[in-house]
UniProtKB/TrEMBL annotation:
Ranges for domain Dihydroprymidine dehydrogenase: 25-136
UniProt KW keywords: 4Fe-4S, Iron, Iron-sulfur, Metal-binding, Oxidoreductase
Keyword flag Ion transport: no
Keyword Iron assigned: yes
All copies of domain FAD/NAD(P)-binding, residue ranges: 151-458
Protein's name in the database: Dihydropyrimidine dehydrogenase subunit A
Gene behind this protein: gltD
Gene3D superfamilies referenced in this protein's UniProt entry, alphabetically: Alpha-helical ferredoxin, FAD/NAD(P)-binding domain
Pfam families on file: Fer4_20, Pyr_redox_2
Any GO molecular function: 4 iron, 4 sulfur cluster binding
């Protein structure tokens, strides 16, 4: 009888790829996890119990066929594993690196519930596709038939790029417009290199270009080109612009010099550290933490990326203020632990009251406690009277979340319906908006979300755009 290659979780423990030591990794912006060696990937994949009802798969936004690609990896059939993995995910190596797996696939792996560590799904997914790149199995689109219809996509983030890839593979003529000089959206300029090295994103950009996707960069729709012009040039338009309006701080002194937005700070760092760009605000010190006492305000993933960037820039001290406690923070526990190992100090249950100096020299901080649950069931933070203290700060980074820009106004398109949060109102799954031939995907529909959801939206939307183009072609032929 053939040897059972799977179900090894009883004998083999969960093992992650090696993590570089904090003292070494905080000296650079390279990723902190190494790649699995092939034997290790096979061993870790073999821990899967091949569940009949795989909860990992149902909790993956892309419904990746995880048990199958784990089985194929465990048995050394890597090219097939890659074929299965890429059939549902446009960028598996990116998701393998930056999905919050503890809240998605791995967080629902049943072997953890039976007291064994979860299967390291994300690391195996990354290993499969990194190997596929190495072996030359990842190919640009080469559609069997070219179609005459064209689709314009506004935004080269993961949502727009996933849609572009699907449409181009179906032979559609695709043009992507973006206001930045490089594609990738937040993959390139938001998420730091120590979570996602930029060559990983740039090789995907090249693959899309090689497959015939046309990119128009440095083009802000609403300024350099009107939304109307784009609609007139294409049979369909997909809006994938993300959310970039930073939530602001209030309180006396909140407008002082030295209080900066997280997105500006991270973009400058990504440009300088990963691409060697010259950024005047970085050189002047405005967006550079070197030699400074840094205070980051917020408890989400953006705040975690800011504190860890500040450490790498050589800050004197880095403190993170968050108004709830550790158990109630929105950011990933894994990233928080990484930040602590690298020397970040967390001040749980604290909130800024006011700011001293201009440029800023200190944050006046209130201590908080958790009170009664609010309407959402979450305990509301309350100020502890008389608890205030001064936290020295030469730079304060606001990482309080993002909202949608007012697109209907900016684009002179009042008929583009939005929700009360300013996000575009779009039909579930198809992404169709109130405007005929206009679709929307990713954060601009969901509000600040995740890369994997933007990919899912882009893929779903592309399928519906194709169906709608087919219907129009039939009507035109009648
Ligand atoms: P985006 O990635 O924001 O891309 C939108 C693109 O549209 C941009 O390139 C922008 O330049 C362009 N654009 C906007 N307006 C215009 C215009 N008017 N004209 C032309 N172009 C325009 N998610 C995870 O899953 N894991 C993580 O670890 C993670 N870390 C994050 C860290 C940070 C600091 C931030 C801010 C977010 C993080 N996220 C993470 C969330 C994730 O990056 C987003 O959910 C995802 O990128 C959304 O994809 P998108 O395509 O909708 O938009
Ligand atoms: Fe897990 Fe994300 Fe991969 Fe899905 S895409 S299997 S959630 S790492
Ligand atoms: Fe394998 Fe865990 Fe998924 Fe079950 S839930 S199929 S054990 S990865």
């Amino acid at each position: 009888m053939a040897k059972q290659p799977m179900l090894k979780f009883v004998k083999i423990s969960r093992d992650m790829p090696e993590k570089r030591g904090a003292e070494t990794r905080k000296e650079d912006f390279d990723e902190i996890y190494a790649e699995f060696a092939s034997a290790k990937a096979e061993e870790q994949a073999s821990r899967c119990s091949q569940c009949g009802v795989p909860y990992c798969q149902s909790h993956c936004p892309l419904h990746n066929n995880i048990p199958d690609w784990l089985n194929l990896t465990a048995t050394g059939r890597l090219e097939e594993a890659y074929a299965v993995s890429q059939a549902t995910n446009t960028f598996p190596e990116i998701c393998g690196r930056i999905c919050p797996q503890d809240r998605l696939c791995e967080g629902n792996c049943v072997i953890e519930q039976s007291g064994h560590g979860t299967v390291t799904i994300g690391s195996v997914e990354k290993y499969i596709t990194d190997t596929a790149w190495e072996k030359g199995w990842v190919k640009p689109a080469s559609p069997a038939v070219e179609r005459s219809e064209s689709v314009g996509i506004i935004g080269a983030g993961p949502g727009g790029l996933a849609a572009a890839d699907m449409l181009r593979r179906a032979g559609v003529q695709v043009t992507v417009y973006d206001r930045y000089d490089r594609g990738g959206g937040l993959l390139t300029y938001g998420i730091p290199g120590f979570k996602l090295e930029k060559e990983i994103v740039m090789r995907r950009m090249k693959q899309l270009e090689d497959g015939g996707v046309r990119f128009v960069m440095n083009c802000t729709v609403g300024e350099d080109m009107s939304f109307e012009e784009i609609r007139n040039q294409h049979d369909a338009v997909i809006v994938a612009t993300g959310v970039y309006k930073s939530r602001d701080l209030t309180g006396p002194g909140a407008g002082a010099k030295g209080i900066v937005k997280a997105i500006d700070y991270l973009t400058a760092s990504n440009r300088v550290a990963n691409f060697g760009d010259t950024v005047p605000e970085y050189d002047s010190g405005e967006l550079n933490a070197n030699g400074k006492n840094v205070v980051v305000i917020g408890g989400g993933d953006t705040a975690m990326d800011c504190v860890r960037t500040a450490i790498r820039q050589g800050a004197t001290s880095v403190k993170c203020l968050y108004r709830r406690d550790r158990a109630n923070m929105p950011g990933s526990q894994r990233e928080t632990q990484n930040a602590e190992e690298e020397g970040v100090q967390f001040e749980w249950l604290t909130a800024p009251k006011s700011f001293k100096g201009d440029p800023v020299s200190a944050v006046v901080v209130d201590r908080m406690r958790l009170g009664l649950p609010d309407a959402s069931g979450r305990q509301s933070p309350e100020i502890i009277d008389g608890s205030e203290y001064d936290e020295p700060a030469d730079i304060v980074i606001k990482a309080l979340g993002f909202e949608a820009e007012e697109l209907p106004t900016l684009w002179g398109a009042p008929e583009l319906e939005v929700t009360r949060w300013g996000t575009i109102r779009a039909e579930f799954t198809s992404g169709r908006t109130a405007l005929p031939g206009v679709y929307a995907v990713g954060d601009i529909v969901r509000g600040a979300s995740l890369v994997v959801w933007a990919i899912r939206d882009g893929r779903d939307c592309a399928e519906h755009v194709l169906q709608d183009l087919d219907k129009q072609a039939v009507i035109a032929a009648e």
